Amino acid sequence: MSGFIFDLDGVLVDTAKFHFEAWRELARDLGFDMDETFNETLKGVSRMESLEKILQKGNIDASSDQKLSWAEQKNQNYLARVQKMTKADVLPGVLAFLEKSKQLKIPMAVGSASKNAVAILTLTEIKDYFQVIIDGNQISKGKPDPEVFLLAAKTLQLSPALCVVFEDAEAGIEAALAAGMYAVGVGDLEKADEMISGFEGQDPEQFILDPL
Ligand code: G6P
Ligand code: MG
């Protein structure tokens, strides 16, 4: 049986915009700006690695303590935005896709770099669809390393070759491919095995892989 592994931010829920807004505010506080093109390079990337990329862009050097404090500042800003989320922030077509996948008894996991994953899944009321949630608290290497997806497959007790990953970030597609999984890009992700623009009108049965 195939299993589905979903990235969280930008795939299941519309949080990618909140990450962008919160990072942009920090960048502006530090005296420079960042646009959406640069933001694409932060998608799927852990909090501290994202901060490193932003500081590099702004040519800013800082102590580890200062970096931790900026990361915390961004996270508090992000959480203030996220607190207002409800089921309405689940991306279009996702609820129907999860419901049909559940009826088909497809094992499902979340594989996210975010340390806020469980809180967001709870606020948006979709947590119970997933048998396994692997997030930034359980992994030591971020995407594009395959660790998050391999751990999700192992916990689902599925071989990687039977896992389908849904991802909106280039780093996430690279991680899925490195894990030996089938990568579905949500958005314009040329390295993916297949691309979809979103879940509206998608039938989970189309993504079930045939066992070898
Ligand atoms: C996801 C998002 C990234 C974010 C990362 C860590 O992968 O796409 O933009 O930086 O999670 O999120 P966190 O909620 O732990 O700061
Ligand atoms: Mg994402």
Notes on the protein architecture:
The protein is built from 8 helices and 6 strands. By secondary structure, it is of the alpha/beta class. It has helices at residues 16-29, 36-40, 47-57, 64-82, 94-103, 117-123, 147-156, 170-178, and strands spanning 3-6, 108-111, 132-134, 163-167, 182-186, 194-196. The longest helix is centred in the middle third of the chain and has 19 residues, at 64-82. Helix 3 crosses helix 4 (64-82). Strand 2 (108-111), helix 6 and strand 3 (132-134) form a beta-alpha-beta unit. Strands 3-2-1-4-5-6 form a 6-stranded parallel β-sheet, with helices on one face. It folds into 2 domains: 3-14 and 87-207, HAD superfamily/HAD-like (Rossmann fold), CATH 3.40.50; 16-82, Putative phosphatase, domain 2 (DNA polymerase, domain 1), CATH 1.10.150. The radius of gyration is 17 Å and the shape is globular. Helix content is 40%, strand content 11%. Residues 9, 19, 42-47, 50, 75, 112-116, 136, 169 line the site of 6-O-phosphono-alpha-D-glucopyranose.
